[in-house]
Design brief:
seven-stranded antiparallel beta sheet
Length: 494
């Protein structure tokens, strides 16, 4: 999702050029570097190539435009198309606001591009029918038909090596991303955006962390665990985060009853080991035995009063989760050598529903995948009901939920106030596109969603805005269209 750069005070959107290897992604950025003056763009940053093929990414920034009165910056990033580098590609795509799918306009090129559509059902999509000068090149209309694209998805005829269609593609992608973020700002304001300042160096560090020895070690120990990149906050700040302690002052621990007991158990688990870090290097996650510890640079407070207020605010949000709150969760403030306080979240280390779904899919276990999709359906519907009833808004993505011994829990600290979100529709329907190779599992998922929605009153579903959220999702397959129609029918009958 788009971010707000707190240093330059600009809204930042990310356009990712995706597609098969040698389709023309890098060529697009090289041409754009020549189209825009140095006042409007950065230099093209190449994070490394081998035999002329992208290994990590290329990056260029464009400045210009306004969104709701705020200056706009656009990150244009190309990703590797080789299947063996899929983890690097997926990391960049995770924060895309728009995706340009670059494909060779031949029958073979379109077939190669088809698999890349699975990862682009959330952001705004533009398809570039490149290499129109090849013999047997298909027209944009034929490309649209073969990829089963929705009418709203632009398809641009291009010859990137000659600059034809390159600028038009970029303009459509940036405009689509800007329109989407404008709606977010209208609905929820600037506070809805994460404050983040990305650079090519921070992105490269995060991607390289994906393949670190610690990450590989964790993946061998827990194959169902999705391990994120390892980034040392100490290298960025000169300060190593102090770990939460059972000796913390009473006003620095939540909940008053139970929180200190969790910290005592944590102390018996041994020295925490840094397990992962989130994008940009701001968030750190440590593992200590069966415990997970999370903090971030944004949760480091020089002022002790501000730190206590932050702990109280997060505690209120955590308490609002009710049964979604993992048992033995604790919050703690710890002071570092500079006098700043770090706010920590401590909870049991749990495998996410996202990792469980991916693990079942990779093993081809349709039965297990169906069970996990049913659990996700239950979690998502309960989260939608919680928003409508209590105005507690969660990020309804499977990576944020876990099955804790039969109790569905919410793992993330991202808890906002609101009765609905336009992302609800995408969260529900994207699972259909993501696992369309397992129709029996998807059918179970659809039934679970329908059953869950019937338990929510018409007034609550109306407050959640779920119908409009479902309608706004771009439809790119018959399976998704069928599930969308079934869910809308349930909402209409409510």
């Amino acid at each position: 999702m788009a971010a707000f750069d707190p240093v330059d005070r600009k809204i930042v959107v990310r356009v990712v050029y995706d597609g098969p290897g040698q389709a023309g992604k890098t060529t697009n950025l090289e041409q754009l570097e020549g189209f825009f003056t140095e006042r409007r763009r950065s230099d093209l940053f190449d994070a490394g190539c081998l035999d002329g093929r992208t290994q990590y990414f290329e990056w260029m920034q464009l400045e210009g435009g306004l969104v709701q009165g705020h200056s706009l910056r656009c990150e244009l990033i190309s990703v590797p198309g080789q299947t063996g580098l899929g983890r690097r590609r997926e990391h960049v795509l995770r924060h895309a606001d728009a995706v340009v799918l670059v494909c060779e306009s031949t029958a073979r090129g379109i077939e190669e591009a088809r698999s890349f559509l699975d990862g682009t059902s959330g952001p705004w999509l533009v398809v570039q029918a490149n290499k129109q000068d090849l013999d047997g090149a298909l027209s944009p209309d034929e490309v649209r038909l073969r990829l089963a694209l929705a009418p709203a998805v632009p398809v641009v005829s291009a010859r990137a090596c000659s600059g034809v269609g390159v600028k038009e593609t970029a303009v459509l992608a940036i405009r689509g991303a800007a329109n989407q973020i404008e709606q977010v700002l209208l609905d929820r304001g600037l506070d809805a955006l994460e404050q983040r300042r990305d650079t090519p160096a921070s992105l490269l560090e995060a991607i390289m962390g994906l393949e670190s020895p610690t990450a590989n070690s964790l993946q061998r120990r827990w194959p169902a665990l999705v391990v994120r990149p390892i980034l040392a906050v100490g290298r960025r700040t000169g300060v190593t985060p102090p770990f939460p302690s059972a000796d913390a002052a009473p006003e620095h621990v939540w909940p008053a009853e139970g929180g200190r007991e969790t910290l005592r158990r944590l102390a018996l688990a041994g020295t925490p080991v840094q397990a992962s870090g989130a994008s940009g290097g701001e968030t750190v996650v440590y593992e200590a035995g069966l415990w997970c510890l999370k903090s971030s640079l944004r949760r480091r407070y020089p002022d002790p009063e501000v730190a206590r207020a932050a702990l109280q605010a997060l505690a209120r949000r955590k308490a609002s989760l009710g049964e979604f709150l993992p048992r033995h969760t604790a919050l703690c403030l710890e002071k570092d050598s500079s006098g700043s306080h770090w706010l920590w979240t401590v909870c049991p280390w749990l495998g996410t529903l996202r990792s469980a779904l991916d693990h079942a899919a990779k093993r081809g276990d349709s039965e297990e995948l169906g069970r996990k999709l049913e659990l996700y359906a239950e979690a998502a519907i309960r989260a939608i009901a919680l928003a409508a009833r209590e105005r507690v808004l969660l990020d309804v993505h499977p990576s944020n939920f876990a099955d804790a011994g039969g109790q569905l829990v919410y793992l993330d600290d991202d808890i906002a106030e609101g009765d609905g979100s336009p992302t609800f529709g995408h969260a529900l329907l994207h699972r259909v596109a993501e696992y369309d190779a397992f129709p029996a599992a998807v059918a179970r998922y659809c039934r679970a969603l329908e059953d869950g929605l019937t338990a929510i009153s018409a007034a609550e579903t109306a407050r959640s805005g779920l119908a409009q959220a479902l309608i706004s999702v771009p439809i790119r397959s018959l399976a998704v269209a069928r599930v969308q129609g079934a869910l809308l029918d349930v909402l209409e009958r409510a």
